[in-house]
Amino acid sequence: MAELRDVDLNLLLLFQHLLEDRNLSAVARRMDLSQPAVSNALRRLRTAFGDELFVRTAQGMLPTPRAQRLAGPVSEALGLLSQALQDQDVFDAATSNRRFRVAMTDVGEIHFMPRLMEVCVQKAPQVRIDSVRVLGPDLPREMESGRVDLAIGAFDDMGAGTLQRMLFRQGYATLFRQAHPTAHAGMGIKAFRAERHLIVSRAAPYGQVNQSMERAGVDLAEHFSVPHFSAVPYIVSATDLLATVPEKLAASAAAPFGLRFMTPPLKVPALQTNLYWQRRVDRDGGNQWLRALIVNTFAVGS
């Protein structure tokens, strides 16, 4: 009985060509081999299958009954392998119904999802994008497993198998309602410290603005706080609280909520937002398409 380990791909190709050409010289030319090399390969093939397989006659190399039984399966196997080798991961956005899962924070959802959904409906009407909240050490694991396709944000420790591309850098802005009695653009640090503040998300990377406020003398423990950015415009529009948030959030929330914003009198490092994906899906057609869509829609300089 032939074992798979005894038969390499070239032997199966030789078998297929002999079935078609019935001539060792023709097969040698077709495979760009010498005739002795083809004869040697045929001996190995006969040994592996324990059968002559092809017998020399006046009509050429004719297949034995065993070779005739092998003809169909070998031809099918080689065809499937050839198809797999030639296959390219072609993604047709216009017809695909693929569903993508993209990890981002709530402030990321506010900035990215409205425009991303709008563009997706235009270019890929059947594609769906799910925003998922997976943060911390769980995010690299979820991406490695394939349960998350992309991540957008400012995440650390994403692992060696993760690739990334910067989308943009942004500073921070301080939001306050239009009717606020004392807040105004250009206010100094002393006046800023005297205001009541809404503290948002102490988690990285947004915790850096809170650290800057503490260094400036703002006692965070004396102020209100919320864990997420999504509630900030609602709270600020109904109170005299100030909230220092990423500037893109401030710009998008100002008009709908009747707010104003200013550059805070703080030294806060710029916040860099990146697009992350796994190396193993770097050449996946669908993943490439969504990455390009995000980059073309949101990246600075695109």
Structural features:
3 domains, alpha/beta, D-Maltodextrin-Binding Protein, domain 2, Arc Repressor Mutant, subunit A, 43% helix, 11 helices, 302 residues, three-stranded antiparallel β-sheet, five-stranded mixed β-sheet
Q: Average pLDDT across residues?
A: 90
The strand count comes to: 12
Percent of residues in beta strands = 15-25%
Main pleated sheet: 5 strands, mixed
CATH topology of the largest domain: D-Maltodextrin-Binding Protein, domain 2
CATH architecture of the largest domain: 3-Layer(aba) Sandwich
Any low-confidence stretches, pLDDT <50, length ≥5? none
Order of helices and strands: HHHEEHEHEHEEEHEHEHEHEEH
Report the oligomer: single chain
Structural class: alpha/beta
What is the total number of structural domains?
A: 3
Rounded Rg: 32 Å
Q: Largest sheet, order of strands side by side?
A: 4-3-5-12-6
Distance from first to last alpha carbon: 61 Å
CATH class of the largest domain: Alpha Beta
Question: What features would you describe in this structure?
Answer:
With 302 residues, this protein is α/β, with parallel strands linked by helices. It has three domains: 4-86, Arc Repressor Mutant, subunit A; 99-169 and 272-298, D-Maltodextrin-Binding Protein, domain 2; 172-269, Periplasmic binding protein-like II (D-Maltodextrin-Binding Protein, domain 2). The strands form four sheets. A five-stranded mixed sheet has the order 4-3-5-12-6. Helix 1 (9-21) crosses helix 4. The protein is built from eleven helices and twelve strands. Strand 1 and strand 2 form a beta hairpin. This is LysR family transcriptional regulator. Pfam families: HTH_1 (PF00126), LysR_substrate (PF03466). Keywords: DNA-binding, Transcription, Transcription regulation. Residues 7-64 form the HTH lysR-type domain. One of its GO terms (molecular function) is DNA binding.
